[in-house]
Amino acid sequence: MRREELTLPRWPAALDGLRVGVMTDLHSGMPHAGLDAIERAADTLAAERPDVVCLLGDFIDRRALFARPVNADALATRLAPLAAAPRGLYAVLGNHDWYAGARRIGDALEGAGVMVLEDSAAPAGDGELWVAGTGDFRVRGARVERALMPVPEDAPVLLLSHDPDAFPDVPARVSLTLAGHTHGGQVGVPLVRRPFIPSHYGERYVAGRVEEDGRHLYVSSGVGTSGLPVRFLRPPEVVSLTLRAPS
Would you say 161 and 178 are in contact if contact means Cβ atoms under 8 Å apart? Predict the structure, then answer.
């Protein structure tokens, strides 16, 4: 369990202390990522009592070595307890979801109380906060401006993008962008991990908090693995972010 506190320059005082639960890159179907492991990760995050939960894609992996079939409805059921978050449970789909049958995965998630966002947005709770989500950057194209169209210009908004490579196109009005996809390289050794980071920007968005030109991104290393089922000095994580307004 990773806990972080982020102070955001445009975060409103009325939402100071908002807790955002983040889980990404389950890659269920891998030998170490069965349904019981997914349930444990969801229970760990639910125990943090987040106000809003954001799931950032790659729920099922069909392409990795040793991958086994996973029933999307059974997977979604294991995530359903996260829907108790008072401001809602939101998700975007990742590239591996599209390889594995994204429509079916999305329908299963919706059936378990998850709002799946595809270049779209929705108010979270009372409408004071918005959550937007892009299509997968590599498979669908991340239409950031289309995702933000419903959001009032001055509203605080969390933008979900499975792939952090969409971040250079995110406008300054977005309070915080959340992404996964990189797995932190799966290997925690600088330079060694570089070939394993699936990003056009090398280690620029490898993991953790990134600030560029006053815009803020948080990249989670995620739960599962892609390719070989190996992590080294980059343990799996679910994340609880506490968002703070400037003092």
Answer: yes
Q: Is the dihedral of CA 8, 131, 205, 17 positive or negative?
A: positive
- Measured in degrees and rounded to the nearest 5, phi and psi for residue 166 equal -75, -15
176-179 β-sheet, strand order:
120-124, 129-133, 157-160, 176-179, 215-219, 208-212
> In what side-by-side order are the strands of the sheet with 18-23?
2-7, 239-244, 18-23, 52-55, 89-91, 115-116
pLDDT score recorded for residue 42 = 97
A 10 A CB-CB count for 203 gives 15
pLDDT digits (tens, 9 = 90+) for 155-189: 999 999 999 999 999 999 999 999 999 977 666 56
**Tally: H helices and E strands in the chain:** 5, 12
CB-CB contact of 163 with 179 (8 Å): yes
Can you read off the two tokens belonging to residue 26? 């389950």
DSSP-assigned states of every residue in 28-66: BTBTT--HHHHHHHHHHHHTT--SEEEE-S--B-SSSTT
Q: Please check the confidence at residue 121 and state whether its pLDDT lies above 90.
A: yes
**pTM: predicted TM-score of the whole model, two decimal places:** 0.94
**Quick one: pLDDT at residue 215?**
97
| Mean pLDDT of the 216-231 span | 80
Distance CA 124, CA 174 (A): 15
